[in-house]
């Protein structure tokens, strides 16, 4: 087993244990006790988002490693490969958790999303290439922090609070910057570097972007409608 795969397995086990322990660490409020699994699941997702979301701001990353902006295939900062492997472990854990605890018609979108991420990130972990590209993709986790906080506040029945309103505004702002703009930049990078990327990898990346972009636009519309135009 390669170190990357061992790290994926260790991450999977760690997030699994965290998921089991969270009900004691963060007891669900009365409004969330009917769906204890969902409460644990969201807190686990928040824990993962906080990891890459706060892992050295990306402007600093690009300043310290200027080669990354030109070469996202072979260039990446120290620790980036481990971070991507840990994320693969989390997405695998979340995939299994949803598969075991939620009906398929309720979770198929996220299961589909996780499948795409696991395949794309898995290639980076196994080949030790495109790690920089995967690291840019992890920018979306900055927004995921506020996206998961929104779900926690909803489950805690704190919709009509200043905290929820403030989080909604930050959530929408970071969504545009760290999800929509990041995916657009990644799609542009793929197009401009299509001659430097092997056809099979280019196909996987292009399909991934083609799936993720409309999914994120639809989710943005749902958030906008729910929090601002309801």
Automatic annotation (TrEMBL):
Topology of the protein relative to the lipid bilayer: Multi-pass membrane protein
GO cellular component: plasma membrane
A Pfam family of this chain: TRAM_LAG1_CLN8
Gene Ontology BP, a term: plasma membrane organization
Alphabetized UniProt keyword annotations: Membrane, Transmembrane, Transmembrane helix
Regions that span the bilayer: 133-149, 169-191, 203-224
Domain (TLC): residue spans on this chain: 34-230
Family annotation (InterPro entries): TLC-dom (IPR006634), TLCD (IPR050846)
Chief place of localization: membrane
Cellular compartments annotated: Membrane
Source species, domain of life: Eukaryota
PANTHER family per the UniProt record, alphabetical: CT120 PROTEIN (PTHR13439), TLC DOMAIN-CONTAINING PROTEIN 2 (PTHR13439:SF2)
Listed name of the protein: TLCD2 protein
Phylogenetic classification of the source organism: Eukaryota, Metazoa, Chordata, Craniata, Vertebrata
Gene: Tlcd2
